[in-house]
């Protein structure tokens, strides 16, 4: 069992380390001109911005890790994989790697994790019971780690967005881990949350530094790995869906990007300004408002995942419907629905209008 005071101390160590080391990273990055330059394809910021901020998240989490010194059979390979994904991000931030080379780094990190024995080997499905995946589980595991890493990377387009969404996702996973008494998940998530929030102080709009692929790939990798410790292996019905609900926004945005680029006969890695956050801004929301809106949806999906994790079959179905409605609402707000139809948004507006009308009559 965990010691609450130790967890609090580990969180503070991780948070303060990231908070204090970020300004140093900013100085070093500026000195060597390792900056993120604006371009017309996908970046909104004006002027050059320091990148490689993900190093602060990693160092912050590492400081908390050294304090807690958790023990688990899979940890050595997970740490090696973390270094591989971190190095991949650093090289991409400095040299702008081709997508193929980035993929090699991501697959390599995932393969190291698989070699530890941490594999999505079974799924619990209603009416079918427990389905064992066998060797197919290895492929599923690699796809999950690579997919989650890229999903977080794709939403890293606005100040503080990826860091905030990741913090909410990790907090949701931590709460579920506490409920399920999964000690190693609690240890890992608490230091990751601390490191990410410490960095977010410098990364929130207007950002002083970007996390870059260094941070986005690392956070995606971390979320994928910690979720595999418990969420996929939970015996609850539909449990395998929980990790997808936790990072619903990044996954949804990634799926849309793949479909959009395939239909446009573009490479999957082609940059554009059609991601959900950019679409919200094009609909008139400010930079800060867009980020806060997506925080709000991430929090909603996080709560849905927590409830879903221990829900009955009927409750699970209700939560799935609520989740799909939430995704539909995001799409409507971003103006990316078929024929620009907005049934959910229209219904909400009507309900609000009815309520306001009732209040007005009551006052009179």
Account of the 3D structure:
70% of the residues lie in helices and 3% in strands. By secondary structure, it is mostly helical. The strands form two sheets. It has a two-stranded antiparallel sheet with strand order 1-2. A two-stranded antiparallel ribbon has the order 3-4. A hairpin with a 3-residue loop joins strand 3 and strand 4. The model has no long low-confidence stretch (mean pLDDT 89).
Annotate the secondary structure layout:
Layout: H1 4-31, E1 35-36, E2 49-50, H2 54-68, H3 75-95, H4 99-115, E3 122-125, E4 129-132, H5 136-154, H6 161-180, H7 183-203, H8 212-230, H9 242-246, H10 248-263, H11 276-282, H12 287-308, H13 313-334, H14 343-363
Antiparallel strand pairs: 1-2, 3-4
- What integer is the average pLDDT? 89
Number of helices: 14
- Specify Rg, calculated over alpha carbons: 21 Å
Distance between the termini: 59 Å
Low-pLDDT residue intervals, each spanning 5 or more residues:
none
Outline: globular
Helix/strand-derived class?
mainly alpha
Strands of the widest sheet, in order across it, are 1-2
Beta-strand fraction estimate? under 5%
Regarding quaternary structure, how should these chains be classified? single chain
Summarize the structure.
This protein has helices spanning 4-31, 54-68, 75-95, 99-115, 136-154, 161-180, 183-203, 212-230, 242-246, 248-263, 276-282, 287-308, 313-334, 343-363; strands spanning 35-36, 49-50, 122-125, 129-132.
Brief descriptors of the model:
mainly alpha, two-stranded antiparallel ribbon, two-stranded antiparallel sheet, globular
